[in-house]
Amino acid sequence: MDELNQVKERINRLKEQINHHNYRYHVLDSPEISDTEYDQLVRELKQLEEKYPQFLTPDSPTQRVGAAPVEAFGVVEHPYPLLSLGNAFSGEELANWYTRTARMLGEEHFDLVGEHKIDGLAVALTYVDGRLVTGATRGDGFRGENITQNLRTIRSVPLSVSRDAPSRFEARGEVFLPVAGFQRLNQERAQEGQPTFANPRNAAAGSVRQLDPRITARRPLDIYIYMLGYAEGRAIPDTHWERLEYLKSLGFKVNPKNALLKSIEEVADYYQRWVNNRESLPYEADGIVVKVNSVSRQDVLGSVGHEPRWAIAYKFPAVEGTTQLKEIAISVGRTGTMNPYAILEPVRVGGVTLKQAALHNEDDIRRKDIREGDWVTVRRAGEVIPEVVGPIVSKRTGQEKVYSLVDKLPKNKEGHPACPVCGAEVVRPEGEAMYYCTSTACPAQVQHGIELFVSRGAMDIRGIGESLSATLLAGSLIHDAADLYSIKEKRDELLQLDKMGEKSVDNLLAAIETSKDRPLVRVILALGIRHVGGEMAQVLADEFTDLDDLKNASRERLMEVEGIGPKIADSIIKFFAQPENLKIIEKLRKAGVWPRRTPTEAAGLPLAGMEFVITGRLDSFSREVAQEQVKALGGTAKDNVTRNTSYLVVGEDPGGSKLNRARTLGTRQITEEEFLALLEEKRR
Ligand code: IVH
Asked: Is any ligand 1 atom within 6 A of the Cβ of residue 179?
């Protein structure tokens, strides 16, 4: 084959591969290769097409922005296409972009805006006469999917804005799943045997592109608006920075980490600052976006294909790497789960050496076909535990071993699989994806339970980490988390421990003492009831007056609470049926760790003690503003109707479940007019 033919073949092969991966990524939300590997394929294709323009065809994946919209949603035509961004992978590439831009503008200095490039899903929100009318995905840039109903469930998306806003305008931004929410979602999915999401972007896309908006509503999605698409009927500022400020004033969420930058040096500083602090971000960002601030200069620069010349993505170093998976080992989790994890040939990824990575459950390992001995892609991002994305099948030698969890477990006398920590029998309950240790006294579970109890979101007792809790347990200074409240009697023994001087013992005892005042929601979370995470703990703390009330609740009573289904109800019942757990509750009571449902601090204000839930659209203001007003008058605003709800405010297109619930509980319902009158009356 001559050289040209070879090039052509390679180009065709690349196109096929990229189209396949586009489909996996954008339509199925289930990529097979890492972003880095994907970028490499696209780069190679682009370079070849540049060098051999005779092979560039209009249907090449380099010529479009994303995948075609899924028909089921209904299609939205974008009045102005949603562009994509060119990339810079090094300081040099950024400098080249800047030089080119300066040359085209005929100016050496111009203002820029630096933003984080959040890894989520681009959306366009259209407002007409102050109301959100359409929310759409980017799709192929020209036509996107109509996902209005789903976007309406995101709390930070204003459903209406001030009437002074332009009569018709479009706000564009990125919908994303914060890292913590992503981790929780994947954990839940792993436990339920559902496929896990490869990264927060896929999880966000998968959540937003749900045909059932109720599923979207349950995911903790958020949005940052990053530009004004267009505006009609009102003059708008003519720099990007001021437009962001303007959008903020209309009630949109704009990233506070954006910065107005005066020179390319300031861009470099901004980039470096966030490369260094990337881990601290609550969301996953894969770089920064640099934009020319003046909109008239943006217009001068225009775009090539789908990429504006006035903006560029300056990517952070990769968070993915490849290495060999030596073995799949097992750790025992807090709820007794057998958690498989990968032992890796150490590899540097984003400045950190990885030796281990998470694998979720056996089904997930099978689904991804990860074998012991495989070369794998691993990724780490934010504070998420690094994970194995998938195998690199082309590197297989035939020596790899298919994984079976049961085969890896020790066997008890009867030949049944046993817990590697305590030796109790291990079972896989019907319909579940995980294997469980059947002992509740398993030291691994107790230890993880204590780690959860003292963790930041729970009792927040500083100074007890993994190793101290292990030491305390091993030395029998404590047997469960509640024993921490009587540990002051063992001061002398504490002082005997390694690294525990007078000062650290005093600090520890003080931290334990302070934690006695934590509110009910944290104590509920700290108990570590299966399926009760932060959000569910809040639901329970809103509904029940104290731990006794929760403990005594029947299955029926629990299921009456919105958001609690049979799975959670059963898990709560089971928790309070276990003698070890009842002992913990009694110890907490004795120690005075006995919070009651927080009465509103706003005593004295006119709406004190009153709880409002709003459903449907309000004419006079957005839901957020209405909630603010309730709070300003001392009331509380909640999302779910419970026994404690004083009023359900019913707007246009109200949600059926809230209405039903209010009917069942006999909650008082009022119209928007009545609500306004009530606010007015209380304000006087
Ligand atoms: S500006 C004309 N700003 O990156 C510029 N995009 O390839 C187009 N993204 O899917 C977008 N953060 O959703 C812009 N601060 C930011 C962004 C951002 C994330 C995404 C965007 C698009 C992709 C661009």
From this structure: no
Report the CATH superfamily, name and number, of domain 74-315: DNA ligase/mRNA capping enzyme (3.30.470.30)
Distance CA 65, CA 303 (A): 13
Regarding pTM above 0.85, the answer is: no
Contact at 8 Å (CB) between 291 and 240?
yes
- Number of Cβ within a 10 Å radius of residue 671: 11
Query: For domain 2-63, which architecture applies?
Result: Orthogonal Bundle (1.10)
Residue nearest to atom 12 of ligand 1 (CA): 117
Domain boundaries, the chain: 2-63, 74-315, 320-414, 443-591, 611-683
Tell me which CATH code domain 443-591 carries: 1.10.150.20
pLDDT in tens, 517-544: 999 999 999 999 988 988 789 889 988 9
Ligand 1 atom nearest to 115, measured from its CA:
15
> Could you tell me the pLDDT band of residue 383, with boundaries at 50, 70 and 90?
low
Tell me the mean pLDDT in the region 483-505: 93
Burial of 610 (0-12, 13-18, 19+ CB in 10 A): buried
Which H helix or E strand runs over 290? strand 285-292
584 C-beta closer than 6 A to ligand 1: no
Q: Which residues participate in catalysis according to the annotation?
A: 117
Atom of ligand 1 nearest to the CA of 85: 7
Matching CATH number, 611-683, of 3.90.79.10, 3.50.50.60, 3.30.70.60, 3.40.50.10190: 3.40.50.10190
Quote the ligand 1 centre to 128 CA distance (angstroms): 24
Determine whether the shortest distance from the Cβ of 315 to ligand 1 is under 6 A. Answer: no
Per-residue model confidence as pLDDT tens digits over 71-126:
568 899 999 999 999 999 899 999 999 999 999 999 999 999 999 999 999 999 99
Distance 491 CA to ligand 1 centre (A): 56
Query: What's the topology of domain 320-414?
Result: OB fold (Dihydrolipoamide Acetyltransferase, E2P) (2.40.50)
What amino acid is encoded at 19 in this protein? N
Considering only CA atoms, which of 172, 381, 178, 207 is closest in space to residue 287?
381
Residue 608 binned pLDDT confidence (cut-offs 50, 70, 90) = confident
- Confidence class for position 601, pLDDT limits 50, 70, 90: very low
Q: Work out whether strand 311-315 and strand 86-88 pair parallel, antiparallel, or are unpaired.
A: parallel
